[in-house]
Amino acid sequence: MVRVLSSEEQGRIVACLVRLKKSSADTIHLQAEALENLKDFCEGSSSELVIEIVNNTEIIATLVNLLDLLLQSLVNNPCDENLLLHVLKVESILEILLFDSDKNSKAAELFGKTKDGILSLLRLLSSVGLFKPVECALQIAQKASSMLSCLLYHHFEIPDAEFQEAAKSITIFADFMFTYRKEDWSNDLSESVQSLCDLVSLLAAEDVEKQDILAQHGLLEALVRFTQQRFAILNDEDSLRSEQDSIYLDIPFAQSVLLAIRALITANDATQNMVYELGAVDCFIRIANFFFGRDDDVYLAATFLLASLQYENQLMQQAVQELLQTGDYAYLFVGPCADLTAVCTQYFTIADERVNIRENHFDDEVVRVSLQILARTFLQTAEARYFFAHCHGAIEMLIGCLQNIDEYVMQCACLATYNLLYGSLYAQDLFLRRGGLAALSDCLYDYSVKIRKTALLILSILSSEHLFCRDEIRETGTLSHILQIISEFPAEDVNLEVAEAAVCALSHVVTKNASNQDFVRSTNGFVSLARVMRVCSQIVKGEKSIADLENLSSSGNVTAQTAQT
């Protein structure tokens, strides 16, 4: 049961907000206690309670207004540590409200509608070089960047009128960080770069006009130069023997930087040519070469970038082939994909089929064929699964196919989804966050044995890897439906394969989850499981054959004692 705000809690929040609403540029520094109380309350609240706070108070608008007042005060006092700490507290509260709203995007919607919310975050990015101390400035800019990413994740678009300002602010933030030398690098810088690059990946994804604006402000060149500088060591074979340099190369944000560059060049001849003119292609090949077998994420991001550079670009394909033939890449891709061309071909296939589905979504036959091709491609390599999962909007497109009314489209979509999610934690996480569980639950109601079976197998994958998913399966009624499927065995649409998949899914859903275990007990789930066990036992002993199942009654006479046993 979802807990709602008590009258005492609501009064406490309202009291804090009333004090904060009375703030002005002259009195803002006096509101520290109210900010601290509000921050402590939000940090100790569950996700459901945070959603209640957002829905029943004016907290978003009040905090955005407060952030704007703080910025006004910082214009004349950019090194005032108390003001900077207030900014951090306001950002921390907003982060909690925004990031705890995956199930309810109301916070992001309200923030996006405020008058100066987006501009305030952009001003924080562009002012990063003015704030002191530097550590505090980086934290402020990183939080601002993360919140902008959250808004974009919830499909909020930065208005065209503000996009130039956004491009300028992001580039200023990037330039500030990229001036740091290797010996001065810190974990805070790594986290800030990663946050920036995640924002760029969302901002520029498959939008040529926005890519061009960001490139015109110098962001693409800054990212490429930064990458070349960081990985220049790969051009020196002697350096590869240095343990210190190897540690230096194994950086947590390397994947994010490569994905950000990829977002800026996708389907854009102008930015692709810019990358080539900067001499970065050889660097990307060396990164993929070096990290193969050392760090899967960085290797996959580098190959993803190389494949995207060449898609529908003959000149770039020729340039890459020339580099591969003349360069020294003796141990490049010595695995399932020993040839970079083979890796790129898989990406080309995925890109083509995504276009086919998007442009012919009304033609079930075209969609079915494309899904079948994708399903086969996902089985080939981890590279193929990585490429699709990191393509903007690809997971949402697949979820849409699961919800198609055509049975064969659903069947092909289930198979493609299973092949994609198997072994790809990133794809699983994104599938769940984008509402894939609801689409799967609907598939369980279909009469097609193949659709039911595959949907149940997908549920097994998700619930085995993601603990929070097990609660959601119960709360959405999917667990109840799994038990119903088991109770109907044997039946025309619940054959032995479906029953096996349902029992497999149930075993993962109840593992280390007392609430789900209690639910199964309280709904007589043991009786249904005992019936399945009895029928299977009869088949094993030769007392029944699989062909006899259609003649078995689904209301088998199982006593409570047998069920308990």
Topology:
Layout: H1 7-21, H2 32-43, H3 47-56, H4 59-76, H5 81-99, H6 106-113, H7 117-126, H8 134-153, H9 160-178, H10 187-204, H11 208-216, H12 219-230, H13 243-249, H14 254-265, H15 269-277, H16 281-291, H17 296-310, H18 314-326, H19 340-359, H20 364-380, H21 382-389, H22 394-402, H23 407-421, H24 425-433, H25 436-443, H26 449-465, H27 467-475, H28 478-488, H29 496-510, H30 514-522, H31 525-540, H32 560-564
Helix pairs in contact: 1-2, 2-5, 4-5, 4-7, 5-8, 7-8, 7-9, 8-10, 9-10, 9-12, 10-14, 12-14, 14-17, 16-17, 17-19, 19-20, 19-21, 20-21, 20-23, 22-23, 22-25, 23-26, 25-26, 26-27, 26-29, 28-29, 28-31
Keywords:
565 residues; mainly alpha; 72% helix; disordered C terminus
Written description of the protein model:
The chain has 565 residues and is mainly α. It has 32 helices and no strands. The model is unreliable at 553-565 (pLDDT under 50).
Main sheet properties: none
Low-confidence stretches: 553-565
Distance between the termini: 32 Å
Helical segment tally?
32
Shape: globular
Beta fraction of the residues?
Answer: under 5%
How much helix is in the residues? over 70%
> Which radius of gyration do the C-alpha atoms yield?
27 Å
Number of strands: 0
What is the average per-residue confidence, as pLDDT, rounded to a whole number? 86
Helix/strand/pairing class, anyone?
mainly alpha
